């Protein structure tokens, strides 16, 4: 028994000596493993199972050989363990008798990259193998913000060094697109060694603006376009379209935001069923979400004037559509009037003038009511009132327009 221990210790020591000699020699049979930054990673290693196992995981660093993890006398031996690996390593001890010497390394950092040696020995003999570790912090989110016609695309916490490219759909002639001339990209490294990338360019108003960030084998794209502004009023309903097909809705997550920051609602499909969540601040305004992703709003006040963004996202891509909603207090933009407006533009102007004067004459104008969140019954009465007014105005309007039209 004592001889057994001595022989094992001797074997351990001899092994260390051999290691020191051979560790710098390159080995064609390396196993390559890509580990994800901050996650756990398994470094594979196996040997012919037998008794009296000795396992050393080692890493040549500069000219020294760091001990990552050692195991002999049927137990972990961590006295020599290199400082950066303290508390982060484990063997699968129950698997060692089966010839599995794989190492679990927790909380991967960029310093963990490199070549590791796995030395194993049993009474039958010894073996060495190498594992090459690459670390990746894949691009996760590509954020696009639009402000004063300058579009900013950014992504953070990436490794290896990312690339960012802009394009448009339909494609624009690069030499004439002011966007590509003003394009400027900057990259910085954070304290963990990860890259942050940011780029700005002139917004191409009439096209879809596309920003793509690539790192390693991972590519993520975010697109942004702006559609024509919409009009709303405190007393009307507004439907802001997102222009999504039903199939897109089932594969993408949909988020409506206000002024690009405040989340209004999120919708996603889980097990083929739509799940919608409306933010507490918006339950009063959000009426519904249509099958095509349109946001239906009502009971709007001036504070709801701003940019509404519809964001469709999968793990790979994000598509943003911005729509400016202008709130015009007191103006009736109901379907009935819209039809009249469409039939004669001249009549519309006159109708608007007439409505304004009528509303001024009426001291209980809908403008004040619209702001004060009145009970439903009053609201219904009010709507009937308005409808009666409209009918009267409609007649007046068309009567006037026939006079105007020769
Ligand atoms: C290498 O090891 C020597 C002696 O153990 C130590 O003095 C030196 O600082 C080490 N170098 C590095 C880069 O770890
Ligand atoms: C060793 O065991 C671990 C944990 O069960 C497993 O993930 C790994 O695939 C095994 N490796 C080999 C070479 O059997
Ligand atoms: C943006 O500018 C950088 C350097 O100024 C250039 O390398 C890159 O190709 C430009 N990208 C586009 C899409 O024009
Ligand atoms: C909506 O989508 C259809 C088909 O995908 C497209 O032809 C149309 O131009 C889109 N409309 C807007 C306003 O983007």
Task: Tell me what the structure shows.
- The chain has 406 residues and is of the alpha+beta class.
- It folds into three domains: 45-135, Immunoglobulins (Immunoglobulin-like), CATH 2.60.40; 139-222, Sandwich (Immunoglobulin-like), CATH 2.60.40; 227-336, Immunoglobulin-like (Sandwich).
- Helix content is 23%, strand content 40%.
- The protein has seven helices and 24 strands.
- The protein has helices at residues 2-22, 178-182, 246-251, 335-343, 345-361, 366-371, 376-404; strands at residues 31-36, 41-43, 54-61, 64-72, 75-77, 89-91, 103-105, 114-122, 125-136, 143-147, 150-158, 163-169, 184-189, 195-202, 208-215, 218-232, 238-240, 253-258, 262-270, 273-278, 286-289, 295-297, 306-313, 317-327.
- An eight-stranded mixed sheet has the order 12-15-16-24-23-18-19-20.
- A hairpin with a 3-residue loop joins strand 18 (253-258) and strand 19.
- Helix 4 packs across helix 5 and helix 5 crosses helix 7 (376-404).
- The protein is elongated, with a radius of gyration of 34 Å.
- The termini are far apart.
- The protein binds 2-acetamido-2-deoxy-beta-D-glucopyranose (4 copies).
- One 2-acetamido-2-deoxy-beta-D-glucopyranose is lined by residues 42, 44, 46, 92, 95, 100, 102.
- It is a single-pass type I membrane protein.
- Residues 27-134, 231-328 form the Ig-like domain.
- Residues 1-28 form the signal peptide.
- Residues 366-406 are annotated as: Disordered.
- This is V-set domain-containing T-cell activation inhibitor 1 isoform X1.
